[in-house]
Amino acid sequence: MQHKTSPLNGDFGVMIEGVSRRDLKDATFQREAYDLWTRQGGLLAVRGNDLAAIPPEELVAWSEVFGAVEYEGMTAREDKSVKGFPIMRIGNIRDEAGNLKASLSRVPQLRTDDDIRYNPETRRPVWHTDSTFRKHPPIGSVFHCRIAPDEGGETLFADMRTAYQRLDGATRAKLDGLEAVCSLAHHDRKINTYSPDYPILTPAQRAANPPNRVP
Predict the structure, then answer these.
(1) Which helix or strand (DSSP H or E) is residue 206 part of?
(2) Residue 82 CA, distance from chain mean position
(3) Domains held by the chain: number
(4) Is 162 inside any structural domain?
(5) Is 112 contained in some domain?
(6) pLDDT digits (tens, 9 = 90+) for 91-143
(7) pLDDT band at 13 (very low <50, low <70, confident <90, very high)
(8) What are the beta bridge partners of residue 81?
């Protein structure tokens, strides 16, 4: 089947449309997708009519096209995971008792350039790279949309490598001498302040996930 491929934002990101579940298992398509992912800055979006119905095992197999999949569960989110698979649910779905079955944070919509600029007073929006609190963070994350809202729910991505390369020499030299302290406990506590359902770490979990200093 012929696929439509289009850039998302210049050299950053690419979209492949008309993709089927069968394509995701095809070795030729997998090589092409991996090549596009690496050439377009590490951001690949895939669309297809039957992709929402992918079962967990197929999602994991597709993820393995891009690297080894981590089977270590996310601390304090065990009840938000798909049982038996390294998949965490994100969204607002609840079980019959009204308990959240997915990780949920409530944030205002990002409508303008001012909205996406980090505000140190409100500490929003929460621009981040997944799991930088780990000594060896993952190379990337795979998102799978099962149910999309009629409006909202947009996800923004930033090309930090290109942003760094475009900085002037003095600013880059200043940043090169700094370190960031990445903390899962701090991240979760901050989001919990405006999303009360968001989990926070227990003392034992904090001890097992200490802050990590990143250049």
Answers:
(1) helix 203-208
(2) 17
(3) 1
(4) yes
(5) yes
(6) 988 999 998 899 888 877 888 888 888 888 887 887 888 899 998 899 999 99
(7) very high
(8) 88
Q: What is the distance of C-alpha 93 from the center of its chain?
A: 19
Residue 69: what pLDDT? 94
Instruction: Give the CB-side neighbour count of residue 157, counting CA atoms within 13 A.
Output: 19
Tokens found for residue 58: 């197929």
Query: What pLDDT sits at residue 1?
Result: 60
In a domain, 185, yes or no: yes
Residue 153 has pLDDT above 80, yes or no: no
What are the CA-CA distances from residue 47 to residues 20, 35, 44, 51, 119 (Å)?
8, 17, 10, 7, 33
Domain that holds residue 185: 75-80+88-214
Q: Do 175 and 146 meet the contact criterion of CB atoms below 8 Å apart? A: no
pLDDT of amino acid 183: 95
Task: Measure the CA–CA gap between 180 and 127, rounded to whole angstroms.
Answer: 14
Which of 174, 73, 192, 172 shows the shortest CA–CA distance to 126? 192
For the chain, give the number of residues: 215
In a domain, 46, yes or no: no
Q: Are 73 and 81 in contact (CB under 8 A)?
A: yes
